[in-house]
Automatic annotation (TrEMBL):
The lineage of its organism: Bacteria, Pseudomonadati, Thermodesulfobacteriota, Desulfobacteria, Desulfobacterales. The keyword Ribosomal protein does not apply. Keywords: Iron, Iron-sulfur, Metal-binding. SUPFAM superfamilies: ADC-like, Formate dehydrogenase/DMSO reductase, domains 1-3. The keyword Membrane does not apply. Belongs to the prokaryotic molybdopterin-containing oxidoreductase family. This is Molybdopterin oxidoreductase. InterPro entries: Asp_de-COase-like_dom_sf, MoPterin_dinucl-bd_dom, Mopterin_OxRdtase, Mopterin_OxRdtase_4Fe-4S_dom, Prok_Mopterin_Oxidored. Residues 2-58 form the 4Fe-4S Mo/W bis-MGD-type domain. GO terms for molecular function: iron-sulfur cluster binding; metal ion binding; molybdopterin cofactor binding; oxidoreductase activity. Pfam families: Molybdop_Fe4S4 (PF04879), Molybdopterin (PF00384), Molydop_binding (PF01568).
Length: 717
C-alpha cells in the first residue's frame, strides 16, 4: 500500500519540503511538497539523493572493526565498549587532551545530534575539539559575538523585501543560500528585480548568481575588505551616513569615520580591481536605496581577511540604516529561540580564552580551529593528540593540507568515525559506528530556522521506522558518554549521575518540545505534528533591542580585534599584487549535484561530465599555451595536483577555480560509484598555515598557485 510522507530535506540549509511516496519499504518518488508554505513545491536535484542513500549498498548498516585490510561486523555493545575503553586508556597514558574530536556539517542538520553535541564534548574532557565551523562560518559567529554579544545573534538578509542586494563571495543559485535559509532562491532573487530592485554581485568568477544579476564586478580575491572600507569612506565623505532606527544603540561612529579616512576609492581601486568611480556609484546606489542588504558567504569568510570583511559588511549595513529594518538585515524570531536560550544559559560564546598548544590559534566557543589539528597530532609533548573521534565529517577531504593530515593520522593510536560510509577519512578508523539512515529519523532544523529569511517551522517525522538493531547519531553519542564514564571507573559525579538518566528520559524530542514551549510562538511538538507541511510564522520583525547582549546593551561598531587588521590592510596597498609576483590565485566553487565531499556515490546525481575541473580565463590559458580540456599541473608550496582545465570567460583574469570534496580514488574507500569518477582533492595543495588572523579561520580562497602544463613540468625535471 502506498503512503505519502511530508518531510523537510536536511541536506543543505534551504529546508525544502518533500513529498515522499513509499510502499512502506521502498521509496517510489520524491517530489517537492507544494503545501509547504516556505518552499511551495520547490526542490533541487539533490533531493533525489535521499533515495540513493537509503538504497546504497555501500552505506554501513552496522558497526565495523578494521582487521588488517578487512572490516568485520561487530555488535553495538562490543563496539561502544571497545571504543570507550581504548579512548580512556589513551587519555590515562597521555593526558585528557590526547583525545581530539571533529564534527562536520551533517551533525548540524540534525537537531537531536546537535543537542547531544555539548554533553558529548564535555564528556571527552579534552581541549582538542574541532569542527567544520573554522573552515566555514566562524567569522560570522565571531562578529555576532563581538558586535552584538551573542554568537547566535546572526543578522539575516530580508531577501523577500529588499530593494537592493549586494552579494560578495556567495553563489546562492548553486549553494541554495547559506546563513540565509531560503528555499527557491532563484525565484526570490527574480522577485527583487520584478519589484524594481537590483542585484549586484562582486565575485572573481561570474558565477551562476552573477549570471542573473543586474550587475557583476570582478574583484581580486581577498580584497573585499578594502572594497568595503572604500564604500565606508564614500558613505562618510558624501554624507550618506544613516543608521536609522539603531542610532541610539550604536557605539563608535566617530571612530569609524576616522578609521576609514585613508581608504579612498582611488587608493584601493588598483588592488581590488574595481574602478574608483564604480565603487562610488555602487555605494550611492546602496546607501540611497529604499532598503538594501550587503550579503556575503564563503568567498568573504574563508579568505585572508575573512573576519574583518564579515565585520565590515555588517558595518555597511548598519551605517546605511539597513540593520533591523524590513528589506535590510534582520534578526529572526524562531520557534526554538536559540539566541534567547543561549542568553538565558549564559552561553553566548567565547573567544581566545585559550589557544592551541602548538600554533597558538584562538579558541572560539570552546573549539579550536581545525587548521591546528595536524600539528597537534605531529608535535610531541604533553597534550599531543593520540586518538581521534570524527562525527559526520570528512576531514581528509575538507581540511586544508590533506597530505599533512594523512601523515599525521599515522601517528595516532586509535581512530573512531561515526559515519554512514567508509570514505577518505573513516577508512583510517579502527571502528566505524554508523547511524541509521536520515529517513529513519525525525527531523527539526533548529539551527537553520534560526537563520531563515522568514520565521518558519516544520517538524518531520521519520519516513521509515528505524531498523531494530540501529542507532541514531544522538543515541551513539549518548551510549559513548555513558561508556566513557564507566571506563573511567569513577563514580559519576552528582551532575553526571543526574545527567545520564535525565538524558534518557529527557530525550531530544522532549528537549525540543520544551524549547518550543519556551519559544516566542508558544508552540509544542504536538502542535507541530498537526501541521505536517510546516507553519509560516510570518516575516522577520525588528527586534535588535531584544537581541543585543553586550554589557552596555549597545552595538559595538568597532571591536578592537579588527584594528590591527585595518592597519595591515592599509599597508597592503603598497605591496605587490600576486599577479606581479607571477602567481595566479586559486578560489573554490560548489557543485549543484554534490554536497561538499558527499553525494558523489548517488546514481541519480552523478551522471555525465564530472564537475571537478580547473576553470581559467582564456587569456591566462593563451599566455601559457594551454588548450581547453588539457590536463594541467597546479602547484603551491605544499605540492601539486593534476587536473583537467576548462577555459571560460566566467573567470577573472589571474584567478582559477577548483571545487573541493573530490579525490575519492584512495585505497580502502568503499564508495563504488564515486571511485569510478573520483575527481581531484584540491585540499592537497591548500595550506593549513594560511589563517585569517582575526579569527583562526582557514584561508581556502585566494591562494597563490602556479599552473603549468604537465609536459612542461616533466620537461623541467
Ligand atoms: N578547499 C575547500 N575546502 C573546504 C571548503 C571549500 O569551499 N574549499 N568548504 C568548507 C566547508 S564550508 C565545509 S562545511 C566543510 C565540510 O567538511 P566536513 O563537514 O568535514 O565534510 P563533508 O564533506 O560535509 O562530509 C560529511 C560527512 O558526513 C557523513 N554523513 C552524512 N550524513 C550523515 C549522518 O546523518 N550522520 C553521520 N554520522 N554522518 C553523515 C558523510 O558520509 C561525510 O563523511 O568543508 C570545508 N572545506
Ligand atoms: N549544491 C551544493 N550546495 C551547497 C554546498 C555544496 O557543496 N553543494 N555546500 C554547502 C555549504 S557547506 C556551504 S558553507 C554553502 C556555501 O555557500 P556559498 O558561499 O554561497 O557558495 P560558494 O560556491 O562557496 O560561493 C563562494 C563564492 O565566493 C567567490 N569567491 C572566492 N573568493 C572570493 C573573494 O575573495 N571575494 C569575493 N567577493 N568572492 C570570492 C567564489 O567565486 C564563489 O562564487 O553552500 C552549501 N550548499
Ligand atoms: S535545495 Fe537543499 S534543502 Fe532543498 S531539496 Fe535541494 S538539497 Fe534539499
Ligand atoms: Mo559549509
Amino acid at each position: 500500500m502506498q503512503k505519502t510522507h511530508y518531510a523537510v530535506c536536511n541536506i543543505c540549509e534551504s529546508t525544502c519540503g518533500l513529498e515522499i511516496v513509499t510502499d512502506g519499504k521502498n521509496i517510489i518518488s520524491i517530489k517537492g511538497d507544494r503545501q509547504n508554505p516556505f518552499s511551495r513545491g520547490h526542490i533541487c536535484p539533490k533531493a533525489q539523493a535521499h533515495k540513493d542513500i537509503y538504497n546504497d549498498p555501500d552505506r554501513l548498516r552496522h558497526p565495523v572493526r578494521r582487521n588488517g585490510d578487512h572490516w568485520e561486523k561487530i555488535s553495538w555493545n562490543e563496539a561502544i565498549r571497545e571504543v570507550a575503553g581504548r579512548l580512556v586508556s589513551i587519555q590515562k597514558k597521555h593526558g585528557n587532551d590526547a583525545l581530539a574530536f571533529y564534527y562536520g556539517d551533517p551533525a548540524l542538520h540534525n537537531n537531536a545530534t546537535f543537542l547531544m553535541l555539548k554533553p558529548f564534548k564535555k564528556s571527552l574532557k579534552s581541549k582538542n575539539l574541532y569542527s567544520a565551523i573554522s573552515v566555514d562560518s566562524l567569522p560570522k559567529m565571531l562578529v555576532s559575538y563581538l558586535m552584538y554579544g551573542n554568537q547566535v545573534a546572526n543578522s539575516i538578509p530580508d531577501i523577500d523585501r529588499t530593494d537592493y542586494m549586494l552579494i560578495l563571495g556567495a553563489n546562492p543559485l548553486v549553494s541554495n543560500g547559506s546563513l540565509m535559509t531560503a528555499s527557491n532562491i532563484k525565484k526570490r532573487l527574480k522577485n527583487i528585480q520584478e519589484r524594481g530592485g537590483r542585484i549586484v554581485v562582486i565575485d572573481p568568477r561570474k558565477n551562476e548568481t552573477a549570471a542573473i544579476a543586474d550587475d557583476h564586478y570582478f574583484i581580486r580575491p581577498g580584497t573585499d575588505a578594502l572594497f568595503l572600507l572604500a564604500m565606508l569612506h564614500t558613505i562618510f565623505r558624501e554624507g550618506l551616513y544613516n543608521n536609522g532606527n539603531v542610532l541610539s544603540i550604536v557605539k563608535g561612529v566617530d571612530e569609524l569615520r576616522e578609521l576609514v579616512k585613508p581608504f579612498t576609492p582611488e587608493r584601493v581601486s588598483r588592488r581590488v580591481s574595481i574602478p574608483a568611480d564604480d565603487i562610488r556609484k555602487l555605494t550611492r546606489e546602496f546607501a540611497t536605496a529604499e532598503s538594501a542588504v550587503c550579503y556575503g558567504r564563503m568567498g568573504i569568510s574563508t579568505q585572508e581577511y575573512g573576519s574583518t570583511t564579515t565585520w565590515l559588511m555588517e558595518v555597511v549595513n548598519i551605517v546605511t540604516g539597513n540593520l533591523d529594518r524590513p528589506g535590510g538585515v534582520m534578526f529572526t524570531t524562531p520557534a526554538a529561540n536559540l539566541a534567547g536560550i543561549a542568553k538565558l544559559l549564559k552561553e553566548t560564546g567565547s573567544f581566545n580564552q585559550h589557544r592551541s598548544r602548538v600554533g597558538g590559534l584562538p579558541e572560539f566557543n570552546g573549539e579550536l580551529p581545525v587548521a591546528a589539528l595536524a600539528e597537534e597530532m605531529e608535535t610531541s609533548g604533553p597534550g599531543q593528540v593520540k586518538a581521534l573521534v570524527t562525527l559526520a565529517g570528512n576531514i581528509c577531504l575538507s581540511r586544508p593540507n590533506s597530505g599533512r593530515l594523512l601523515r599525521a593520522l599515522g601517528n595516532l593510536e586509535y581512530i573512531v568515525s561515526i559515519d554512514i560510509y567508509i570514505n577518505e577519512t573513516s577508512r583510517h578508523a579502527n571502528i566505524i559506528l554508523p547511524p541509521a539512515c536520515s529517513l529513519e529519523e525525525d527531523h527539526f532544523e533548529a539551527i537553520f530556522y534560526a537563520l531563515a529569511v522568514r520565521n518558519i517551522v516544520n517538524y518531520s517525522t521519520s519516513v521509515f521506522p528505524k531498523p531494530v538493531d540501529a542507532k541514531h547519531d544522538w543515541e551513539i553519542l549518548l551510549a559513548l558518554i555513558a561508556a566513557l564514564n564507566s571506563a573511567r571507573g569513577f563514580l559519576p559525579s552528582i551532575p553526571g549521575r543526574i545527567m545520564h538518566p535525565f538524558m534518557r528520559v529527557f530525550n531530544p524530542k522532549r528537549q525540543l518540545d520544551l524549547l518550543l514551549r519556551l519559544g516566542p510562538h508558544s508552540l509544542s511538538l504536538k502542535k507541530l505534528k498537526q501541521s505536517p507541511h510546516g507553519i509560516d510564522l510570518g516575516p522577520l520583525e525588528p527586534r535588535v533591542k531584544q537581541v543585543i547582549n553586550t554589557p552596555d546593551k549597545k552595538i559595538k561598531l568597532i571591536p578592537e580585534n579588527f584594528l590591527k587588521e585595518v592597519e595591515r590592510l592599509n599597508k597592503s596597498l603598497d605591496e605587490k599584487l600576486p599577479l606581479e609576483k607571477g602567481a595566479l590565485q586559486l578560489i573554490g566553487r560548489r557543485s549543484r549535484k554534490g554536497m561538499n565531499s558527499w553525494l558523489h556515490n548517488c546514481p541519480s546525481l552523478q551522471r555525465g561530465k564530472i564537475e571537478c575541473t580547473l576553470l581559467m580565463n582564456p587569456e591566462d590559458a593563451r599566455q601559457r599555451e594551454f588548450e581547453n580540456g588539457q590536463i594541467v599541473k597546479v602547484a603551491t608550496s605544499n605540492g601539486s595536483i593534476e587536473i583537467e582545465m576548462e577555459t571560460t570567460l566566467e573567470m577573472m583574469p589571474g584567478v582559477v577555480s577548483i571545487p573541493h570534496g573530490w579525490g575519492h580514488d584512495l585505497p580502502g574507500v568503499k564508495l563504488s560509484l564515486a571511485k569510478t569518477r573520483p575527481g581531484v582533492n584540491v585540499n592537497l595543495i591548500t595550506n593549513d598555515d594560511l589563517i585569517d588572523k582575526g579569527s583562526g579561520t582557514s584561508v581556502l580562497y585566494g591562494i597563490p598557485v602556479v599552473v603549468t602544463s604537465v609536459e612542461q613540468l616533466k620537461g623541467n625535471l
